[in-house]
Amino acid sequence: MMLLFWFVIIGLICVLLVRANKLTRSGAIAAYFVGLFTVLGVGSNGLLLFLLFFGSSIVWSRLKDANRDEAIVEKSGARDAAQVIANGGVAAFCSFLMFVFPTFALVGLVGFVGSLAAATADTWSSELGKFSKDKPVHLFTRKRVDAGVSGAVSSLGLAAAIAGSFIIAAGAVFLWWNLTGSSHMWLLLFTVIGFIAHLVDSALGASVQSLYQCPSCGLMTEKTFHCQKTTRVKGFSFVTNDVVNLCCTGAGALLSIVALQFFG
């Protein structure tokens, strides 16, 4: 009966997010299954951690910056199914593993938290880093690039990544480790893991993520069409921002599971 209650609540939340233009219809369907799998394994506490990630992401995304050209990024506005899965799919998978294999519940739990710490670090870095007074620096070429270009970092963005990762780490410790002697250890580990996974995202964005140039205006963009059809100048066509984000959250989960073997 309790599961049925949560399934209904998740459905209502998804509908409200569609009406608020925070999710597309496909995004709502994906979010519903992410929520369903989360409740099955991690339980309602997992939804609270997701709320901390998604709620903070919505708040920061509402902040506008005149210096950031939305034509650079591949997607903006309401999140579609691919974006939902890229940011929450790994966490949902870890939770589902907890449901199927209860013996490995702790493995699934730390993977769940690590993936959300990575997603939050990356999102906060992107949304708050755009307010940096200086242009970000490309991770490999060390050249200044326009805000919004994947693979670039700024001091403000790095600080935001640490803060985002810490928020999820603190929430997770409060929900699951607050009465244990390892609470401080996991607070530090999840914070560091989320930050490192965010750097993995930046490294992939700087190296293998696809980047295009508009032949009409010369703009470097993640879009395959700007003024006209764009030309790929870097990376692989199948490595989109969503693929990079999925690798980021996967790295967060994997690093957390590895950390469990040493510190668990």
UniProtKB/TrEMBL annotation:
Keywords: Membrane, Transmembrane, Transmembrane helix
Keyword Transmembrane part of the UniProt annotation: yes
Protein name: Uncharacterized protein (TIGR00297 family)
Keyword Membrane: yes
Similarity-based family: Belongs to the TMEM19 family.
Ranges that cross the membrane: 30-60, 105-124, 145-177, 183-200, 243-263
Membrane topology reported for the UniProt record: Multi-pass membrane protein
